[in-house]
Amino acid sequence: MIFLLLSTIDDINTKNIIEHYYNNYLQDMFKMAYSILHNTHDAEDAVHSAFVGIAKNAQVLCRISEQDGKCYCIKSAKNMALNIAAKNGRMSSVAEIHDYQLTSSDTPFEEVLNNAEYSDITVALNTIGDIYRDVLYMHYVLDLTVGQISVATGRRQSTVKQQLVRGKKALCNILSGGDHRNGKR
Amino acid sequence: MANDKLKLALQDSALTEYLNISNDNAEWTPSDNFERKMEGIINKRKWRPISSRHILVAAAVVILVTILAVFSIAAVKDNILQFIVSDRGNVAQIEYDKPIYDSVGGLIGEGDTIVMDTFDEIYTLDLGDEYNETDHKVSDMFITTAWENGEGNIIILTQGIGNELRKIDTKGLARQDAEIDGVAYMIFSSDEYSLILWNTDKYSFSLEYYGNMKYDDIIKQYEPILR
User: pTM to 2 decimals?
Assistant: First the structure.
């Protein structure tokens, strides 16, 4: 019977958490998706895809704060929208997709962060682009696994891994005093 | 330390980015197609704001499941009691339209006002040390027991026999029907009050809870025993 109880509570918790974020942040999610796609139908598809992922990752939302949960939902809708935009061949109209000329760095990631000023980190994050920043957020703030980030963003796990690596390297390069976009220093 | 700095920076960045979204007052009305697709995920037909009353209803269901762990519910076809609920605005009138038995368990008929002779079993709740029994009343038709804890939360269990007409003021109460192991339960609840109604083949039961209920509290000790 305890299993039934726990199962009931887990199911109720999960259901409640999904309903909670649906009721409170649906509009924000749509606005984010629409700001990228400029199409109601596509934006609804993006939001729906985000909620499919939210349902799969519901246990994550149960353990994080309200504010982080809100960010998760909106980032998920944004990334789903970016996926749709890419499929629709509208990549060129999507801002902040940088193709960094990454070089290997001998300086460990943590050492670079330790030596950097907080304000510089903030500026660097705003420079590296939405996709890298979002996967870094999901990894470092929400403590999601690669699999969970894959569900949240609608991308393959291999893609998520690559984006995590590239995001960290891009941060490193900017904070180390170099800007390797387009091979410039 | 470095990761904490990055984490904080990521959170600040996210807050700044989404501030503008929330400030945009343009409202979007979901299409019918979208709502249909969402229905399968959130499993509801109409959008309604989540509130603590839903959690309370869920909590009441959990209490119910716990109680059923000890009750032996055997749904025998001729003995199932039926709720007849007439909705009269803010008042639900509930009649137990049930077969009536004589003192040896023979079926007399339906709808009579004959009262069963005795309570063959008396049910109560073992609520542990948190609750103290504050009231226990026995009449020909009802046995009512009340418990209260140090926070002023009250639980009342009522066991009844015979026909019963009960009127409940349902203004402000959410209703949810549940079926567990073939037995129908009717649940009314608000933020501060929860009422569960059900019956076995012999008795009617109501369980009332006054107070704010939290998940941690409800899964602890609601285990009834037979006296």
Answer: 0.50
